[in-house]
Amino acid sequence: MFAPLPTASMSVSQLLSESDSFVVPAYQRPYSWTIEEAGQLFEDIATAAGVDEADELEPDYFLGAILLLDPNSGATPASRPSGSANELEIVDGLQRLVTLTILACALRDLDPDPQSEIATRLDGLVRVPGMPVSDSSRIALPVEEWGIALDLVIAPGGCLRSVPAEQQLDSRQQAVINVRDRFMQDLKALSIEQRRALATYVYERCHMVVVKTNDIDRAHRIFMVLNDRGRPLQKKDILKAEILRSTEPAHRGEALAVWRDVEMRLGDELENFLSHLRAVHGYHRMQIIAGIRRIVREAGSARSFIHDIFKPLADAYAITLQAPGHKADIPLELRRALVRLQRLNGNEWVPAVLRILSLNLSDELTRQYLEELERAALLMRIVCLGSSKRQTRFAKIARDLSTPRPPAPVGLYEPSREELRAIAFNMRDLHSRNVQACKGLLMRINDELQPDAIDADPSDYTVEHVLPQRPKPSSLWRKWHPDTEERMRLTSSLGNLVLVSHKNNGLARNDEFLRKKEIYCEPGDAVPSLAVTAAYLDSDEWLPEHIRAREAALIALVNKIWRLELEVEAVDEAVA
């Protein structure tokens, strides 16, 4: 008879207090989560914890399965070798455990009282009490991987310290520091009470299914099954079965034909569509299946849901998806607006677009609404709102559009006074604050200068600094810009940024100005040059006055496009 696997659903607190040390075996890949992955986990947990909407707190948040190898399985503490630690090897789940450790450290170090119960409890999750910092981390990453991060993350107060200027980090250590900095940025935007509530939620309500074995071969087989085997039943399959079963028998064939038609047109996007459909009706914080079930009930019958809600919104989603490829049979100006939205990373704007396209408005009014949504989406990114906050803002817009008397297009979104200040501040160094927003802004400016380039693919281009960030000491750049502080300020200016192909970006690097201009417009590159790159670069020199003049011209275009009143002086003062 086989030995059953010990499994349990454990909270983060229970799991991390289960062992003195979690050992990382040599076959594990290094920590490699990006700030995008860590940021998404943070936003998901914060949403579940009801950080922004306390009344929408989820009872728990599931973090998946963790597979551990326990060489002492079955041994009691008394039967272990004298002096041996209670150690567990991490077979699967290392990336999540390290990320949760970094989050716990950031929450601990931002607590105003280092001796508070919450700070002490968080410290106990990540460190073994009484041990020196170098040996105290419960997750025993190789020293070359933790490295200086032990002092800058694990040690109490470490997350508040900056990386020494002379310290060189390898990619593994940099990944840890990048995630730490992302968490610190997100957490600083919360109040003390919100951070403490989030900390409590993390260690009490975030949980995992923990699987243990004491056989490495068995652990490997389990790992393969957990990661590679089987095809999970998707939400769309569950909902299809439920909704068709609930349809009156006389109309079931008709409903099935509609569903199959939508399946064929949307393909793999059907799952995403159902998520957006839920959000159109104001249930973006509910689980998808629960949200769709409620919408079906509110529709009165499954048949009404299929014909009055599901099909019209699916038609709108198909148009949205087809806009970039000239496949959608819609006027050019509507296609332009949809293409500009599709360029943006994130899709929080989709539910509002679906609502607009399903309202059967005139083409002109539809265009106005879509352009206002595009304005809102990009300005929120320049403000540097996270995806969760953007989702909340767009959910309100979708609700407003669903009322009997929806607001006029110009009333959909207006940045607050604080957001206008943030726009002015971030515009001064947008590339370092939000690379994707910076590229999106330059692409939108290019649309104004070069309307026929609407189908230019953002992934073909990268943001290039004309005045290099690190010019050679003997270069003309140093002669033209001798003042270091002013040079750094001008380098990050909007007036100094262009869009070029990845190939040309690699060729230009720190070259002199005239050579850079040749490279930017070099024939033979498969990626066409953009007007925003050539605009206002007709001088033979690139002096401070040229950068300021180009900045003023580009900001004037931004003001025209989005009804703003930014001034170059105000943008400069926002940083001074």
Low-confidence stretches: 75-84
| Quaternary structure classification | single chain
The number of distinct helices, counting runs of at least 4 residues, comes to: 29
For the largest sheet, list the strands in their spatial order: 1-6-3-4-2-5
What helical percentage do the residues reach? 55-70%
Q: Count the domains.
A: 3
**Radius of gyration computed on alpha carbons:** 27 Å
Gross morphology: globular
Number of strands: 8
Average pLDDT over all residues = 86
* Structural class by helix and strand composition: alpha/beta
Largest sheet: 6 strands, mixed
Tell me the span between the first and last alpha carbons. 74 Å
Strand composition percent = 5-15%
What does this entry look like structurally?
With 576 residues, the protein is α/β, with parallel strands linked by helices. The chain has three domains: 222 residues, no CATH class; 179 residues, no CATH class; 151 residues, no CATH class. The protein is 56% helix and 7% strand. It has 29 helices and eight strands. The chain has a six-stranded mixed beta sheet with strand order 1-6-3-4-2-5, with helices on both faces. A two-stranded antiparallel sheet has the order 7-8.
